[in-house]
Amino acid sequence: MIEPTILSRPTYGTLEPRPGRAHLLIADDAGSAAIVDLFARAPADFHESATILSVTKDLSGDEAAALHRLSPATLTACPDMPAMLNTLAGLLAEAGMGVQIYLAGTEPLIGQAMRVVIEAGIDHSAIATEHRGSLARRVQCVHCKGFMDEVTTQPVTCAHCGLSLFVRDHYSRRLAAFQGVCINAEDQSEIVPAEEVFR
Amino acid sequence: MTITFRTETFRDDFTFRNSPAGIRRFPFPFHEDGYMYSVNIEPHRPGAPGSVFEHGFDVDEHYVAEMADRALVLAEDPLRCQALPHMDLASWDYLELVMTTKARDYPELFTLETDGDRWHWTNRPLGIDDRFTFGVTSTLPCPPLEYIGRQTQGDHCLLDQRDNNLWMDAGMVTTQADWSLDFDIGMNFFEWHAPVPLAHEMGVFQRAIKFLTSIPQGQPSRRLNWTLTVNPRLDTSPENYPKWGPDKLTVTPDTIGEKMHLRVELQTFWRLPRSNALVFPIRCYLLRFDDLVTIPKWARRMHRVIRDLPPELVTYKGMSRYHPMLVEWLAAHDDGAPTSPGIFPD
Ligand code: HEM
């Protein structure tokens, strides 16, 4: 469970079936179990109005198979995040009013999918989230503006400009990223060892 | 009153200085011998002649040099000025507010002639003479917020008002105390204030938002905020932290007086007429410690405030590295005499 820290840092809930004519469910591998759990609590005909969109490391892996067994009306698996976000934008352009959105998985998945959903004009109140899996963070370097998708250490070396970055809790929903700020800007001779903290 | 605009820099050789009159009109932010966050908002009424509160938008001896520094920042980092698409109307509102107010308050410096939506703006200190159609961006050399922001001291945030909240949906931010517009744009009042310690728990932001969302047009408000900056550097952005962070190592008991600056933000809040947005100009004033201690009341009070500052604020304001040194230096300028209430020199 991700505990609240500062007010810009998002927190997540538990997916519950909501009334609605159409349901769009988005998950990564870690989040697929949350979708399975949601279906177990949902009315028997829930799958008939469900579209599942997943991003998976293995298109023929266990997670993909588990989602397939749920027999959703539509099931689309994507091999990487950009492909998934593109497909999501397309699905949202087609989706009617009142579609219910469910996002499950790691924070980079939830944050980036959320951004596409909000840009499509869907109201906050129609979006449910559940965090599953690692605490890896998507981080933007405030200095060079480059992004890193799977940050697990504190501090982290910027993959683009090489500065050692302190990963803050300050979070931008627009960028779907936490802020990374140089940890030793005042005295570059201070080397702070990296620790695996976002696991 | 004529203003002699100084030729000076806020980087590299740091030739910024306040004139003796500039020192006396500095908006010292402490009305008593201690400091803690509070909802310190008051009406932005015209103040004493010559003071920074005399006019809605204060223009001072640093105007031309500050605008030159802003141009340098923007040339390196255009993301310091951004407006989400729905903020166009608010940007025009703001341009109008600045032009009408400055032309009224400083007729020798600025002139605005309007004929319907055909406007003619003259800014003599910056050598600008432009005709444009109000509301039509293609008739300006750049978008309206950037245009007026390049001619107005201080940073400027445009806040859209929705859901009983304020959203930072546009801004021109080049003289900030360590926060990023590019990162915070699109956030609401509570999200962009998230990093501030203690104030959330004290209910400061909950009370402030109620006040701000009900500010009527024509009744602006103001507050002062402060921090310390090493060297008279305007651009202390997180983006450029690797450039100004090392300055902190140059602070020693011998250099404090010259290098350490009290940085005060005169923040004002104005409702805009067409967009119903709020504009939040954040005007930055700098005062060298050597100059500050020439005013005995300020010297005494500064020592007491810094000495007793809550540790969370010492950390947040970035002075951990030299806080004890500062207290010691300031103590030598505090004779222990009582101070009078209020911010103005005796
Ligand atoms: C609506 C206009 C306002 C804007 C755009 C604004 C913006 C900001 C920003 C960007 C920060 C820096 C946060 C960070 O990243 O660390 C900040 C700090 C702060 N703000 Fe505001 N603010 C506004 C109004 C207010 C009001 C009305 C109050 C209180 C009554 C307030 C109290 C504070 C305090 C106490 C800090 C910490 C400053 C320090 O200790 O140096 N703000 N503000």
UniProtKB/TrEMBL annotation, chain A:
Keywords: 2Fe-2S, Flavoprotein, Iron, Iron-sulfur, Metal-binding, Oxidoreductase. Residues 5-127 form the Dimethylamine monooxygenase subunit DmmA-like N-terminal domain. InterPro entries: DmmA-like_C (IPR048037), DmmA-like_N (IPR054582). GO terms for molecular function: 2 iron, 2 sulfur cluster binding; metal ion binding; oxidoreductase activity. It holds the Pfam family DmmA-like_C. It comes from the Bacteria. The keyword Oxidoreductase applies. Residues 138-181 form the Dimethylamine monooxygenase subunit DmmA-like C-terminal domain. This is Uncharacterized protein. It comes from Methylobrevis pamukkalensis. The lineage of its organism: Bacteria, Pseudomonadati, Pseudomonadota, Alphaproteobacteria, Hyphomicrobiales.
UniProtKB/TrEMBL annotation, chain B:
InterPro entries: HODM_asu-like (IPR021848). This is DUF3445 domain-containing protein. It comes from Methylobrevis pamukkalensis.
